[in-house]
Amino acid sequence: MKTVESDPAMLSVFDRPNEVRPCGGGRPHAPIGRDPNGWQPIQITMPRGETPADRSLSFTIGGGFARAEARTIAADLDLVAPLMRRTFRNIDLDGSPTSPGRTLFGLLWPESLKNQSADDRNRRLILDEASAAFPWELLDDRRPWISGDGVSAPAREPPAVRARMVRQLLQMRPPAKGPPSRGERRALVIGDPGAEPPEGFRRLPGAKAEADAIANLLQNDQQPYGVTKLVEAAATPEQICKQLFGQAWDIVHISAHGVVDSLLTGSDGTKRRMTGIVLGGGVVLGPPTLSKLPVSPSIVFVNCCNLGKIDEVAEDKARQESLEGRPEFAASVAVELIKLGARCVIVAGWEVDDDAANAFGVTFYAQMLQGATFGDATWRARRAAYDLKRKSNTWGAYQCYGDPDYRLRVVALDSPARISDHQFDAIFEAIEAAQRISGDLNIGLERDDTDQRIRVERIEEEAKSRKWYGSAPLRVALAEARAELGDLSEAIDHYMAAVASADAGFKVRAVEQLANLRARKAVREYRKASAETRDPATTVATINGELQRLQSLTEAVGPSLERLSLQGGCWKRLAQVQASSPAADEALRRMADCYDQAVELAGNDPGYPWLMACAARACLAARSGTECDSALDQAVREQANSTLADKDDFWGLIRWADAQTTLAIVQQSTPSFEDAERIKVAYRRAWRHVGSPVKMRSVTEQLEFYEDIFSDGAPETATRRKSLAAWFAELRNFVESEFPGVKAAG
Fold first, then answer.
1. Which residue has the higher pLDDT, 225 or 688?
2. Cα separations (Å) of 484 from 1, 376, 487, 544, 565?
């Protein structure tokens, strides 16, 4: 539909439809398979290692649907760093069989992705601050022994030229600043600042030409920007700062020298190490200064030498710091702009060719002004730079951070011919978008809750305006997305609407999850309240009501593993909020009974319900001061003594940790520091295996249960219960502090 709306030739043939309406026999989805226009999410992180040999790159590769593939490969920085330096110096021309790009492809790319490389899929790289230092755009898959194209003259382009590639920085903190207002669109264009450059830095006539061309594009668009252009003599440090910090800009484009950790003479005459954009006269616009921008621009394009990397000496220093477990990529200008909240950031990773850089910049802005998405505009710009100068690696220098579907803000027009603001052409697209958000959050491909919450809110706003809220499938999809974000109140509202709808097909799961979320929310609010304001009677009544809902559903449609486990969870929460009452022990017994019934339906892998039944009985024994049944003791010890395999998935690793915590309750001795450290190792590995804040929140909820249940019991057990509660509290504090976003998810 958007293609029809934006193409005058097609509008002359077709009427502009308002939306696509599903008809009988229609299919809501295309046949299952890879969408050639979709974006494959690939999360790449480099966890801190205790020794240099421990450094590794962890890949989480989206495969479609609610699944992901996890891979870990060694990050041999001693071998990779020299190759990166050759890249920054533009050593080895494109096409050389021994180019750094081909070697880095062999060293850094997992085998499963190598096998998919010929598919030319659009890729969205979700990077942490350590993995962002690698030149992923330059990886070259053109292996002559496979393609048959010959050694010296590859026929195909590199992967980042053949298909789209964007980056996103893995951030858990919300943006520091908000976006510009909805008024006039403004752009600040800076080129070759005119103050005296530092010794050894030449003038940049190419930067001035680039700034002129881009300013001309922006101010002569059909919907022109209010452009302020500062070039050469007009671009003094004082004038740049006055404009940069005195106005709210939609676009900021800077073409200048850039330095990272370079020893320069400051404006006061003293030498010190500086990082940032060189304005001349001893002034460098660094990360701390950029954080003071009044609003976060929509697009920041920093076309400076060396800003996406660090110089050779500083690189060696940073590499050593990384080997010691303290990666310091956060000092770069690009990272600071992303933390500020800029929607899209483009930064050059090394010194670029003037002509190729001009082609990239002009093509990028021309495409964005024509309504292209950020992902499409950056790809076409990269192709333009590559086609102009194939013997330069400028095409690979640009690191493009942002939402691939982002478009420039359009000023509202009175013309009826303007393009629709709707995201979706039909309701099933909105359902799929919500499902994609919950799937990405669940498997850890998205850990930025703020950005994902905005996406959900946009779907909700459009669904309301288009009167789609009566659709049970849409409300369930939105409920699942809200639940993954930890927004229990909003998720409950959506599930309630789905249950009340005329569509019975979604009612069973909606009823189950509605009961589960209400019970969880009741305990969460109970724990957040102060001791003076807690209302245990109301909390117990809420949980009992949801338990009865699940029991009635089970009577109506029969038992299932999920329904029985949810009932066990309700009994667990009843025990938790009544820890000082005899009712807690009865609730623990009923908890064990429900999970026992679930085990009978679980087949050969009882897993979670079996451990929860064991935990219930272990808590009963610890509270009363009695010994556990010998068979239970032996079974838990066997599970806890099994080998922790790194190949296990997230829940397999958490199950191993749960066995350790259950063993800590079963054994008579006080759990030790070493016991806690083993569990922490399992938590760290689980986080690397498609972990997410919401998944880890389930871990903290279980630890909170133990803290609360051991707050009371037989008087003779007081000392041991107190030590157990403190031990579990320490584990919970570790999870909340170690893994970003977990505490916020609660």
1. 225
2. 31, 30, 8, 24, 19
Say whether both 251 and 313 belong to one domain. Answer: yes
Mean pLDDT of the chain: 81
CB distance 614 to 572 below 8 Å? no
Q: In what order do the strands lie in the sheet with 258-265?
A: 258-265, 271-280, 283-285
Q: Residue 260's closest CA among 300, 287, 292?
A: 287
Q: In 3D, which of 353, 360, 352, 400 has the Cα closest to residue 383? A: 360
- Under a CB-based contact definition with an 8 Å cutoff, are residues 197 and 280 in contact? yes
State whether residue 62 is helix, strand or coil: strand
Alpha carbons 581 and 8: distance in angstroms, whole number: 73
Name beta bridge partners: 263: 273
Instruction: Take residue 532 and report the two structure tokens written for it.
Output: 């003076």
> Do 117 and 149 sit in the same domain of this protein?
yes
Phi/psi-derived region of residue 557, left when phi > 0, alpha when psi is between -120 and 50, beta in every other case: alpha
Q: What is the pLDDT of residues 122-169, one digit of tens each?
A: 999 988 878 888 888 988 887 665 555 544 445 678 899 999 999 988
Question: pLDDT tens, 489-514?
Answer: 999 999 988 888 766 666 788 889 99
b/e sequence 334-355, b meaning 16+ C-beta within 10 Å: bbbbbbbbbbbbbbbbbbbbbb
For 105, the token pair is 């492809």
What beta strand segments (E) does 483-634 contain? none
Same structural domain, 135 and 190: no
- C-alpha span between 654 and 671 (Å, rounded): 18
Residue 318 has pLDDT above 50, yes or no: no
Q: Residue-wise over 409-420: b if at least 16 C-beta within 10 A, else e?
A: eeeeeeeeeeee
User: Which 3 state secondary structure label does DSSP give 402?
Assistant: strand
84, 74, 95, 75: which is closest to 140 by C-alpha? 95
Answer whether 146's CB lies under 8 Å from 105's CB: no
Question: Do 426 and 324 fall into the same domain?
Answer: no
Residue 150 belongs to domain spanning: 44-169
pLDDT classification of 349: cutoffs 50, 70, 90: confident
- Assess if residue 743 is contained within a domain: no
**Cα-Cα end-to-end distance for the chain:** 40
CATH of the domain at 339: 3.40.50.1460
Higher pLDDT, 690 or 421: 690
What is the reported pLDDT for 505? 61
Tell me the mean pLDDT in the region 329-341.
66
Query: Residue 230: inside a domain, yes or no?
Result: yes
Strands, E assignment, 220-359: 226-232, 251-256, 258-265, 271-280, 283-285, 299-304, 344-348
Give residue for tokens 């691939």.
Answer: 404
| 309 vs 335: CA distance, rounded Å | 11
Cα torsion at 684, 686, 691, 697 (round to 10°)? -80
Nearest to 608 by CA among 675, 662, 564, 655: 655
In the DSSP assignment, the letter for residue 408 is -
284 vs 49, more confident: 284
Instruction: Look at the chain and report how many structural domains it folds into.
Output: 3
383 shares a domain with 256: yes
